[in-house]
Every structure is written in C-alpha cells, then in structure tokens.
What does this fold into?
Amino acid sequence: MTEIAFHFNAPDKVAYACRLLRKAVAAGARLVVTGEAELLRRLDQALWTFAPLEFVPHSLASGDARAVAASPVLLSERLEDLPHSQVLVNLGEQVPQGFERFERLIEVVSLDEADRQQARGRWKHYVDRGYAIVRHDLNLKA
It folds into this structure.
C-alpha cells in the first residue's frame, strides 16, 4: 500500500519542491512530480536555477526518451507510461490518478487557504480508502 505524507505550510511550493527533490535525489530516489502544467513549468525553470552548484537532474516526461529514462526526476501532468514508481510528489489540486502504483506519495500544501482546502479533500479521499497518513508541519521545522 502506498505510503502517504502531507507536507503542510510550505511558504512557496516550488521552492520547497526544489529542496525536497535535491535531498531525495541525493539519497538515490527516483521521483515523479505531478501538478498543473503552469506549476510544472515554474518548477522546471526553478530546478535549473535554484542552486547553481547542486543541479537536480530532471526532465519533462514528454521530452526525449533517452533523457526521460536517465532522469531521476520526471515532471508530468499525467502518470501513465512513466518509468518511475518509487516516489510521487503531488503539487496539484487533485488526487493524482494512478498514485497507487507508487511506493510513496508526498503531498505538498502551501499556506494559501484555497490550496489548504483542496488538500483537506485529498486527505479525506485517502483516509476513506484506508491509507494511513503521516503529517509534516513545515512551520514546526523552521
């Protein structure tokens, strides 16, 4: 069963995702990040520039097949036909269709009230299906 964690109170989803991905890749993880196209575009740009000496190798899932196969981080709006199934990071508003095939799912939730409300709906979806959820309050780690 997929392990699910919610990371709450991210001041900036994209900046937090960059740090999370850097740490996970350094630990050897292979990840897929999902969300809306505009958010993934911003994340793609941020991953190229956020830490010049600590580049996080990544690729758009719709990119060159060799780059997709070699990249430890894939950015994709959809989860079909992806080579990774270890960790899924959801930056989006909806429950990702097909999240069950991943070992772990990390939901990143910002301080925005609308985002928090949508996260409550996703939380309920997972709990209603029997998933245990680990909660990480990022305010407590500051």
Observations:
- The mean pLDDT is 95.
- Residues 61 and 82 are 7 Å apart (CA to CA).
- Strands lie at 3-10, 31-34, 58-60, 73-75, 87-90, 104-110, 133-137.
- The first strand starts at residue 3 and ends at 10.
